[in-house]
Amino acid sequence: MLKDNKLFYGWWMVVAITILFFIGGTAPFAIVLKQLMEQLHTGRGEVSLSQSITMVGSGIAGIIVGRLMLRYRPRTFILWGSVVSGVTLLLLSLANSLWFLYVFYLIAGLAVGFCNAIAYFTLLSKWFTRRWGAALGIVMAGGSIGSMVMQPVVGIIAQDFGWRATY
Asked: For the segment 105-133, what is each residue's pLDDT rounded down to a tens digit?
């Protein structure tokens, strides 16, 4: 782990990816579902369809990314996927109709497909030949802890400031 009193750079990758998993574990949709239904004057099924659209987009992107990941640097996918998904989530806070929700959740799904576990684990595999299991375990724990910690925070934000602030 330490070489010449320096931490192996791969562990810095673990820290960065763990932080991304920690933050990525925050899924406000279930928390704000009722508020979205009221805002858009529609039912649970219509609003929830946006999550299915996200999963379809992420799945399509995952197939593409899985093939391209062998040729190109995973960091590039993570960077652009993170930027696009972040901007898309900010834009989702402006949603005022179902079609807006559907389109931007599709874009978010495609973007997340570029910066999901496939890219993270491919990046980690390039840094670790030993201790790969420990690195992976730390990253996965970060995502689980992130979900556990961030969900109540998102709930408080939604309750105090409304659904738009959660995005």
From this structure: 999 999 988 888 888 888 888 888 888 88
Q: Tell the burial category of 92 from Cβ atoms under 10 Å away from its Cβ (0-12, 13-18, 19+).
A: buried
Q: Which of 159, 48, 45, 157 is nearest to 167 (CA)?
A: 157
Q: Cα separation of 128 and 6, whole Å?
A: 16
Report phi then psi at 3, rounded to 5. Answer: -135, 120
What is the CB-side half-sphere exposure of residue 39 using CA atoms within 13 A? 18
Q: Cα torsion at 78, 81, 83, 86 (round to 10°)?
A: -120
Per-residue pLDDT of 58-79, as tens digits, reads: 999 988 888 888 788 888 888 8
The structural domains of the chain, ordered by start, are 7-166 (1.20.1250.20)
Compute the Cα dihedral for 27, 32, 34, 37 and give only its sign.
negative
